[in-house]
Known about the structure:
The complex is a heterodimer of chains A (180) and B (263).
Chain A: H1 7-16, H2 28-32, H3 43-51, H4 55-60, H5 72-76, H6 83-96, H7 106-120, H8 125-135, H9 146-151, H10 165-174
Chain B: H1 20-26, H2 28-44, E1 49-52, H3 55-70, H4 72-82, E2 91-94, H5 95-110, E3 120-123, H6 144-151, E4 155-156, H7 175-191, E5 196-199, H8 202-217, E6 227-229, H9 230-237, H10 255-260
Parallel strand pairs in B: 1-2, 3-4, 3-5, 5-6
Helix pairs in contact in B: 1-2, 2-3, 5-6, 7-8
Amino acid sequence: MQGDAHAFRNLILKHSSEDVGKCIQCGKCTAGCPLTFEMEFMPNQILELIRTNQEEKVLRCNTFWFCVSCQTCSVRCPENIDIAKIMNTLRKLNIEKGMKPSPGGVVTFNKVFLDSIRSYGRVYELGMVMKYNLMTGQPLKDASFGPAMFMKRKIALLPHRLKELPLIKTLMAKSRRLME
Amino acid sequence: MCESFGVNLVEIEDWNCCGASPAHAMNEELSLALPLRNLIQAERQHLKTVLSPCPACHSHMSLSHKETEKNSAFQERMKELLKGEYAGGVTLRHLVDFLYRDIGVEAIRSRVTRPLEGLKIVSYYGCLNRLPAIEIEDRENPVMMDEVIEALGAESVDWSHKVECCGAGFALTKTSVVHRLVKEILEAAKMAGANGIAVVCPLCQSNLDMRQIELERRGEGPFALPVVYLSQLALLAQGRKPEELGFKKHLVSLSNMLLALSL
């Protein structure tokens, strides 16, 4: 609804079941976050921006892309707000609305990772890493570890394909980004 | 290691990737359906417990398990997507839970034939202690791993970074973040006087081991801190030969640690 002062707060509530209205701005989430040095807005600021309906500002910032889902904020929140879950919802809303792409090629990586599951049912590490590095213009990243990874049999040369792969493919085609 | 405690492990047939962080960040239904398929497969094999070595796999399966329990609309939708039904009869355990609660510290101690005397180990839990699916007595200062390490005869060293984040899924996309976080952790371990770091998560192992080499190459070391799984330490204390324990797969050499044990 246009002009609804609580629109963004309610959108977040709908998709994550978390209500930012409970936030008391104590700052514990920010104090415990290991990634604040990369973030445009601090986690507690994000909650305040959602509460005050500043959707554009939130969905265009880099904060949720730098959330590593370690859950420190969620565990420490005295109001039991699952802040990491809100960050996850923000990532999906950003993609859904076609907003500014993620820094560091995170979405590219995610897509390449999921492509691997679509093709094999599991992650084919070698193929995935090479594809991601090529797509992000850094073909030789981590290449120096390649020989050791093979010699030590940490990664396989060839992929393994699931028997029930058709089921995985259908699942990936039909599943919905956001649940209500 | 499980065998040494009389537990036989079987693999879930045709298991699939749980989708990890990418599914979690991109597609909610997928992030619940992928782990659920593994649970359906487990039930088809009449397995009662699913043991995960990875905290994230464990956590994702637990989320799907709980959602099935409480949400019938979700159940219906998953039936349609997965062409199968999960009855909810599987108990989920992470390896550290399993060791600490199901096997028990006393049983672990009773199997020790070569106490790891001389080893000073820091327990690194990372974000594992914050995943809701794992039962932990104190999320700010967990001691499960510490108690196991003491039972193995090694000294468990108290330190500042046992629950700090290693950068986890940013390993490939934001490697500079991982470098920064890993460096803080390694420096803290070194400051505590440890000659090894114990882990129970494959991603912690990989980040701390591989990026440690890289930091050293860039002249930001030296650390020389082997990053070993709790299971490897348990078997070492049971008298198993180092060659049998996969130490050759590590990037950071274990020679100093084994030297401290006169091995």
